[in-house]
Structure formats: structure tokens, C-alpha cells
Amino acid sequence: MVLTSKDSYFVDVRILREKLEEEKSLDTNTESCLEWAFAGKSRTTFSKDSSMQLSHTVWDHWIDSRTNNPDSDEGDMWVQPNGDILEKGKNIDPVTGEETEYEELWHDLQVEAFGKKDNRSSLVVRADEPERNIRGMAIKVGGWCEGILKVEDETTVERWEWKPTDCASDVASTEGIKEQERNRSDWIRTIKIGKGILPCEEICSRTYGKFGLNAVLKSSTDIDWKVAEEYYW
pTM, whole model, 2 decimals? Predict the structure, then answer.
């Protein structure tokens, strides 16, 4: 899943589903579940012709789970008859180190509106401490949140989702209240890889006011996360 903000920040977390299914009972997943995770900012040039080519995009990787010297990849985006987007491009193969062509098919998800004001929102926070070899980025868009943190060679990845909790209490006074509890949604961490601490839970659980651009969130490991973007619509 890729989360992209209004100002083109992105976090891309690719999980091996079969491995994740094997570890569904674990609170923290192993690195074998992670195919690739990276984050950065993209640049897009939209097509001016009448073909099905939508745009050409370059993704500048700022953090990359596979390397401490991240590069960029780029591709052409083609609209498919069902509305999906076919991405055709080139990137560096992590095994051979050679430039390789690839194709990926993408399906856009609708951003949900929820909360007291029933609005949609996106939030981007970044950690950048070169003297400590720390880089991190987390993005919340609607009902999803993903983040990646690298401290030297150690990578931590998280994904949170707004989803039904299905947690009806045995002490609920009526069946009606039990049904409300069954239908209640909350932020649930669905992926956790690595030992680091990301601010995903904090930015997801906040239900009042804005953080404010350039506001600093300090983690329990003394890492400063700065708000790079905050948008509501």
C-alpha cells in the first residue's frame, strides 16, 4: 500500500501476504514479512496528449529499507478501462544493481471522512537527525497510516488502519448497546516490523484540533518528529 499526501510525500510499504498470514497471531512481525518499504517525495508531469497515458512520475526515495543510499525510480502511468492505473517504468534491481524494467497495477482507494467534523485529512511527519543516522517518515491519509524509520541499519515499519473492532462487551446492558460496540471502529495496528518507535499511534489517536505545521512530536526514544504537512478537506 502506498499513501500519498497533497504535497506528494509518500510512504510505500510492501508486505508479503502469505508470510503475514503465518504471523497473524504475533504482536510484532518478523523481517521476513517485508518485501520493501520506502518513503520520499514524488514529481509528476501530466500528459498533454489524448492517449491513455496519464502522467510520468519520479519517486525520489529519501528512506529505503534495502539501502542507506536511496535512489529514485520513475515510470509512466497508463489509465486502464476499469479505472486502475498501470505503471511502467525502470528502477535499480537490489540484487544485481542493474536498471530493470517493471510493471505494476494500482487501484485507488477512496479516502474516508470520519471524526466529529466528518472531514477528510492527511498528515505528514518527518524525523531527520543526520548526526545520529536517523531518518523517518509517517503519513496518515483518511483511515490509513504508514510509517518507516531507519536508525543506522535498523528499519522499523508500521501500518495502522481505521476498522471495526468487533469487541462487544459481556457487561453491556442491552443487546442494542452490544450491537453498537460490535459496529464500533478504532485505529488498529495491522503491521509492526522492527524494534523502533514510530509516532503512528499518536497521530492516529488524536481527535481534537490541529498539530500545526512544523510542530514537533517527541518520541519516547528522544526522536523529534516534525509536522511537514497537515491538510483537511
Answer: 0.86
